[in-house]
Specification:
5-stranded antiparallel beta sheet, Jelly Rolls, globular, alpha+beta
């Protein structure tokens, strides 16, 4: 089986700020590290139909973020509902679970409310609805982005450590897409896919001897077993056989699949701890000729990872 990564993870299991805390690195003053962005500008906001008040998006990837609702005076019987939405691309938005603020009424207006964003998407924004009367309020998003001269180095170290842990465990740590190529169909009724945490099989296709490509149909030509955090499988349904055509001579069978834990919060703590240990070694030995040994000889990290290795 030949494997080619089609899409790498867009996030790391450890954020840059988390790594800095682990390494006890300080970027300077609190004021230098905090950025405040208005998502919904402060002022008097008119009655809306539904959540029609859309706040500006803020990039929070790798940062700590707090959403602050500053409520002024509500109009008579007026209410304000604010919730946090999240997005991977800044275009398609969904409500973040647990991101709804307590409704603001005349009984609890003229106060400030905060929610820390603990999700994993790249962008967040505030959206709101105003009912019965105009109300005064604004929503800010505060991000802590402690910037160091070595941030690029630390980001590279995070990726290197995660990739090294993937090599040790045989796992895909976070969502990534792979293409698996086979030279022939198996003798048995299934194909085992590597890396564990199979999320989905995007396609199974093959080329005949003339180079004509055919795509199989899931649940008709094959079934998908995700098998939790173990290796997933592609299985023949009862009474179905693999295609019998003569295959193309070079990588005729292609399986595209998505695997890995979906969110950083889902990654086991022992894996995160091992990544931090390896990052610390890489940072301490930066520029040293022994940097390779510093990674491969971290016995504590290897012991942490042993129970989560995929075997066979």
């Amino acid at each position: 089986m030949n494997l080619i990564q089609a899409t790498a993870p867009t996030i790391e299991p450890i954020t840059l700020n988390e790594l800095k805390l682990h390494l006890r690195l300080d970027s300077g003053s609190f004021a230098d590290s905090i950025t405040s962005t208005q998502s919904i500008a402060p002022g008097s906001h008119a009655i809306t139909e539904g959540y029609a008040l859309l706040g500006s998006a803020v990039d929070v990837l790798g940062k700590s973020a707090v959403v602050t609702l500053k409520a002024g005076t509500n109009g008579e019987d007026g209410t304000v509902d604010i919730k946090i939405q999240e997005s991977d691309d800044g275009t398609t938005w969904t409500d973040w679970t647990g991101g709804a603020f307590t409704q603001i009424t005349t009984a609890n207006d003229n106060a400030t409310y905060e929610k820390a964003y603990t999700g994993t998407k790249q962008y967040i924004r505030a959206v709101g609805q105003v009912l019965l009367a105009a109300c005064e309020f604004g929503v800010d998003i505060l991000t802590e982005d402690a910037t160091l001269a070595e941030d690029d180095l630390l980001s590279d170290i995070l990726t290197t450590a995660r990739e090294h842990v993937e090599d040790i465990t045989g796992r895909a740590i976070l969502t990534q897409t792979w293409d698996a190529y086979l030279s022939e169909w198996p003798d048995g009724d299934h194909i085992i896919l590597p890396f564990g945490n199979l999320q989905s099989v995007t396609s199974v296709s093959y080329k005949d001897s003339e180079g004509t490509e055919t795509t199989l149909t899931e649940n008709t030509d094959y079934l998908v077993e995700t098998n939790g955090d173990q290796k997933g499988r592609i299985v023949l349904p009862y009474g179905v056989s693999w295609p019998s055509e003569t295959l193309y001579p070079s990588n005729p069978i292609k399986i595209r699949f998505v695997c890995g834990w979906e969110e950083a919060a889902d990654v086991p703590k022992r894996i995160k701890s091992a990544i931090k240990l390896i990052c610390a070694d890489l940072y301490e030995n930066r520029g040293e000729r022994t940097i390779g040994a510093a990674v491969t000889e971290n016995k504590a990290a290897e012991r942490l990872l042993y129970p989560v290795r995929l075997w066979g």
